Amino acid sequence: MVIKVLSILLIIKSMESEVDSQGFFNNHVLLFQSPRIRSRIDEKVQHKYSERSNFFCDLRYGARSHTVPKDIHKLTPGDIDVVAALGDSLTVGLNANARNLFHIGSEDRGVSWSIGGQDTWRQILTLPNILKAYNPKLYGYSLNDSPKGTSGFNFAVTSSMSSQTVNQAKHLVTRMINDRNVDVQKQWKLITYMTGANDFCSGICRQHDTNVILNNAARDLITTLRILKAYLPRTLVNVVFPPNVNILTKLKNAPLKCGIIHTFACPCLFNPTYASQRERILRTIKLWKERIVEVVQLPEFHDSEEFEVNVHPFLDKADLPRLQNGNTDMSYLSPDCFHFTPKGHALLTNALWNSMLTPENHRSRSLRKEFEDFKCPTASLPYLATSKNIWQN
């Protein structure tokens, strides 16, 4: 099996225009390079702002409260002390900094959209880097490619399916309770949860009973949220819709390697073996997302001033940005044509942040190009939106 995979990678590699004779990388540092390759690399990172650039928002609004709030519905961005994340490789930051297929496999957690804290928002837009603008003492984010000791509270696992987030939640609780830098009872925590892509790509085509699939997904999410509520008071949970993996079938003018990779990475949608199930699979994905909303809206997750769950559907109908000629902008995807580059993580970050400052029933179900629309707290609306606070009015 290993030889087969290596053979496939070698064949795909031969299709790429970037070859080792033009440059090579060591620990993500380019040692030799042509201007053309340098340009291609620069395309995959966000626009970088100078150190003199001010943050997009007036930091007086949404700043840390004078006294620690007791009500989660009066929580500002500056009140968040600790961040954490549960999920799969999209939260791990898998292959975000990979330059070509010979560099895949790295877990670049420091640039992960929901939990990365490498550099600042000026270089790498992530949710923690936004929150650090409001609270420089924020704790729990991941750094760099996260060897042992720097992954923070990023408990996402590559190739994880939804059923595994229950164990992730248990490990998170244990680690956080035993961390001397965290006061579980007093500090406000923000946990971002997103999973489902691997279920869609590798799981649901092998289980033909849709009700079993949906009931298991709902059970796992409920169990995960109950664990967090039972052991981590003063916690706001972001439940983000899993990505619209169907967009991978609509990439326009993508490299030939993408189709080959997708056949192996996402067989449920791309392998001809499961072509007859395609309609059922897409219907199951739609129902899965509806079930997420049903779970998040359960009264038990909205009956406390110290715990709240929000759902963010911005990936529901999301498509990748297009170039002027109508082709898919592949700079948002890593060389594996599946995971995100730092630029792609910035895209997700911007969408999540905007959703956190949008009333529950008005949250976007699609993506806009990063930095085109950046919402901010205001004097009259300084809080993170919840189902019960002033945002709903």
Summarize the structure in words.
With 393 residues, the protein is α/β, with parallel strands linked by helices. It is 32% helix and 9% strand. The chain contains eleven helices and six strands. The chain has helices spanning 2-15, 35-42, 89-92, 127-134, 165-177, 197-203, 210-231, 256-265, 267-270, 278-296, 342-356; strands at residues 24-26, 29-32, 80-87, 188-194, 235-240, 307-312. The protein has a four-stranded parallel sheet, with helices on both faces. Strands 1-2 form a two-stranded antiparallel ribbon. The chain is globular, with a radius of gyration of 21 Å. The termini are far apart. The relative contact order is 0.14. Residues 1-7 and 13-35 have low confidence and may be disordered.
Helices and strands: which structural class? alpha/beta
Number of strands: 6
* Shape, principal axes of CA atoms: globular
- What is the helix/strand order? HEEHEHHHEHHEHHHEH
How much strand? Answer: 5-15%
Biggest β-sheet description: 4 strands, parallel
How many helices? The count is 11
Averaged pLDDT: 90
Helical content stands at: 25-40%
Question: Topology, please?
Answer:
Blueprint: H1 2-15, E1 24-26, E2 29-32, H2 35-42, E3 80-87, H3 89-92, H4 127-134, H5 165-177, E4 188-194, H6 197-203, H7 210-231, E5 235-240, H8 256-265, H9 267-270, H10 278-296, E6 307-312, H11 342-356
Parallel strand pairs: 3-4, 4-5, 5-6
Antiparallel strand pairs: 1-2
GO molecular function, one term: phospholipase A2 activity
InterPro entries: GDSL, Phospholipase_B, PLB1, SGNH_hydro_sf
Keywords: Cell membrane, Glycoprotein, Hydrolase, Lipid metabolism, Membrane, Repeat, Signal, Transmembrane, Transmembrane helix
